[in-house]
UniProtKB/TrEMBL annotation, chains A, B:
Natural source organism: Cryptosporangium phraense
GO function term, MF aspect, one: DNA binding
DNA-binding feature ranges: 33-52
Presence of the UniProt keyword Protease in the record: no
Name recorded for this polypeptide: TetR/AcrR family transcriptional regulator
Amino acid sequence: MPKVSQLHLDARRQEILAGARACFARHGYEGATVRRLEEETGLSRGAIFHHFRDKESLFLAVAEDDAAEMAAVVAEQGLVQVMRNLLDDEFSPEQAGWLGTQLEVSRRLRTDKDFAARWAARSEAISQATHDRLTRQREAGVLREDVDLDTLQRFLELALDGLVLHLAMGRPAAKLGTVLDLVEEAVRRR
Amino acid sequence: MPKVSQLHLDARRQEILAGARACFARHGYEGATVRRLEEETGLSRGAIFHHFRDKESLFLAVAEDDAAEMAAVVAEQGLVQVMRNLLDDEFSPEQAGWLGTQLEVSRRLRTDKDFAARWAARSEAISQATHDRLTRQREAGVLREDVDLDTLQRFLELALDGLVLHLAMGRPAAKLGTVLDLVEEAVRRR
């Protein structure tokens, strides 16, 4: 019997995550049954749960993947750019999946204390990336000086949360570009 | 047999709405079973569905009630005040209920087209109240002149959505007061 290579295992894991992301987005956490996860990934439950202990672990892996990607964009380009990217990708299936995951996370944070604890560590990465970037921007003299960094960070995070909820509800992204200009202007040096 | 007065019927209706709001907040829409609605309202399913055709109608009535109250505050005091009130009431059970309802609305807007259509008319009242107030404020010379009203309205609504998601996730309200100062400053005349 041929040995399954690590490369193959990683590819399979990515396949499962992509299918699961779409499935959670479409049906919500509770609605994403094992049967639906099988359909969406094209794999058997045996194959899926060879890679992930249970549905909760699978969901957290999806959310963790998204958080890592977002932290990378924040580090390079800042939180406002994350928001602008959300507007540009409005109709992509990937984005629909991402938004769905975010809302599911929000809902489970509210209703499930254990989940909240497991999630805290993961969301910390985005927060840290934002803090680091704002610190660099302040040193570069780009930011307004009359408001502390902590408040500027919370303000940007509030705008991002608002955008997530707005788009996740299916409301139009059109005309939000100028709104993000306002958001950006509010944190910059005049 | 004594005739049931309109006053009594209205009071009963309010009782059901209060219990249902708590129940939807705690368990989500799907989780708010008829049995749980009975427990939370202290009334039988017969009594509940004498007043509301079905669970969806009950949920929409809760959401409509919330929207009407919010539109009234917007008309009197503006959208930023709605946000400040949310911070003040952070730990009240009423607020937990309201936030829960908002998130459930968001989730159902995404997954249920029929619901989205029924909801659209209700959310219009808040939007209209915001528009009217901003128009009056612009006439009074309170708002900045270099950005159109539509954009200012979308900016404030984005902040509100962000606050709803933030609080609904159980994140702390502390320190958001200064963030709302930034929001308010961003729309005002310098």
